[in-house]
Design goal:
It comes from Glycomyces algeriensis. The structure is a single chain. By secondary structure, the protein is α+β, with helices and mostly antiparallel strands. The protein contains 16 helices and 18 strands. Strand 17 and strand 18 (450-452) form a beta hairpin. It starts with 19 loop residues before the first helix and ends with a helix.
Length: 476
């Protein structure tokens, strides 16, 4: 009996490299020109200045920062790759499995970027490596193209060990295998310096933030126009989430974080990312969404819209209080104020409003005291954060460098008060249960105050209603 099965039926396993007919044939007959590396315009120049600033903080230290690898989703399938933010800030490069090495020299550091070369026709990896083989991932820039685009010394990844890296500092989130293989030291100090440096954005970074915010506000309009369809066809929250995610992928790299769409009783759930419920026609609809620009800088904006175009009296009352808190917080964003001043200003308005409604079991002063905080039952999260390459940017700075610092021009941050009355919260009257409202804007600290980058979207109750009604009319 003859075994009629072919000697090999797949493409990724080692056996195929031993089949001479296949390897001879697939190695020849390919055309193609070098593929240029195309970093976001201005990214390479900005990154060179970022490396200079880090060099000034760590004289004499060798620094190693890697871009990382796509995490496994299941079996041999990975999530879409997104490089480490510190790596992007220092290189302007978004390649997978890349490593930056900064070695000290008199007066600064030399920088070298190590990259895995793409596998070209004629190499086994061309058809055998699903991560770097061009048969799998398409034509890719080579090392010379990266060096030319980034104006940095580039070497193959397998030459990483040629440099004296023992004891070099690396970020704490670095691949443990990489750190162990090269005797690197995961360094809280390095993380801290990078976070502090990234707090104040340069002109190029601010331009990227504007692009991200502008694309985001346009995305809100795209979502609002789909509300009638989400209700009428029963497509629900998931449809609106998908609408924004498609917009973000079209006009940027994608979303900066998982899009939140919460209708009615889902709106008070702070991280309602499941988005698997209906869009209720008479409920408030909380949308927390941000486009990540192609440079990977992200926006983070929230509005709460009346799905019908008009808030109910109860929804309006809650929205009005959140708006007052929002304005009080934004008024504290200016040079020279302490970072947390905006938080305390907004919280004071919230606590007073809740007391006036009879929802606090203590006085306003006691609630605002460090040992009280009863008002936080309805607002358990903070009132804002730094924003940049990460949604919650610069998170490895020390407390005094983050929370206790004075604001200065170039800081980009969010202000986002809210009130969250859960549907099963028996401490609030029935007419308020299931209402969640948040307002979030992205602010740039300027020389004499602050610019609200997301002010294309209204925050006052009447303005939100009019804006929503206009979008619903566009959809008709």
């Amino acid at each position: 009996m003859t075994d009629a099965r072919p000697p090999y039926a797949g493409t990724r396993y080692p056996r195929i490299k031993d089949i001479k007919g296949f390897t001879d044939f697939i190695a020849t007959g390919w055309s193609g020109e070098p593929v240029p590396a195309n970093p976001v315009p201005g990214a390479a120049q900005a990154a060179a200045d970022h490396r200079r600033r880090l060099s000034e903080r760590l004289p004499g230290a060798t620094v190693v920062v890697a871009s990382g690898s796509a995490p496994t989703r299941n079996d041999d399938n990975t999530y879409l790759f997104r490089p480490d933010s510190d790596f992007v800030w220092l290189t302007g490069c978004q390649a997978e499995d890349a490593v930056l090495v900064m070695t000290p020299r008199p007066g600064g550091h030399d920088a070298r970027l190590h990259l895995p070369p793409p596998f070209r026709p004629g190499e086994t990896g061309f058809f055998g490596d699903a991560n770097h083989g061009e048969l799998w991932v398409g034509a890719s820039p080579g090392l010379p193209e990266w060096a030319d685009a980034l104006q940095i010394d580039v070497a193959p990844l397998d030459r990483l060990g040629d440099q004296a890296l023992k004891g070099a500092l690396t970020i704490q989130s670095a691949d443990p295998a990489l750190a162990a293989a090269h005797d690197l030291v995961p360094s809280a100090l390095l993380d801290r310096h990078l976070s502090v440096l990234r707090m104040v954005k340069d002109a190029w970074e601010i331009e990227q933030m504007r692009l991200a915010v502008d694309a985001t506000t346009e995305g809100f309009a795209a979502v609002a126009r789909e509300i009638p369809r989400a209700i009428g066809e029963g497509l629900g929250e998931r449809w609106l989430q998908g609408t924004f995610d498609r917009h973000a992928r079209t006009h940027g790299n994608g979303t900066g974080y998982t899009t939140i769409v919460g209708s009615g009783p889902h709106a008070p759930v702070l991280h309602w990312v499941r988005c698997d419920g209906p869009v209720l026609p008479d409920a408030a609809l909380l949308l927390d969404m941000g486009v990540e620009a192609k440079s990977l800088y992200t926006a983070d904006v929230t509005r709460t819209l009346p799905a019908s175009g008009t808030f109910s009296p109860q929804q309006r009352t809650v929205h009005d209080l959140v708006e007052r808190a929002h304005r009080a917080g934004m008024a504290q964003v200016r040079p020279g104020t302490k970072y947390l001043d905006f938080h305390f200003a907004a919280m004071e308005v919230v606590a007073q409003g809740l007391h006036d409604w009879g929802l606090l079991p203590v006085s306003v002063d006691e609630a605002l005291s460090p040992r009280g905080q009863q008002h936080r039952r309805y607002l358990a999260c903070g009132i804002g954060h730094h924003l940049g390459l990460d949604t919650h940017d610069c998170g490895h700075a020390e407390y005094e460098e983050y929370m206790g610092a004075d604001l200065e021009p170039g800081v980009v941050m969010t202000v986002e008060p809210g009130l969250y009355f859960h549907a099963n919260d028996l401490t609030v009257p029935p007419e308020l249960r299931g209402i969640g409202v948040r307002l979030e804007d992205d602010l740039l600290v300027t020389e004499d105050g602050a610019e609200v980058l997301s002010d294309a979207l209204p925050i006052d109750t009447a303005g939100v209603e009019a804006w929503t009604q206009a979008r619903l009319k566009e959809a008709a």
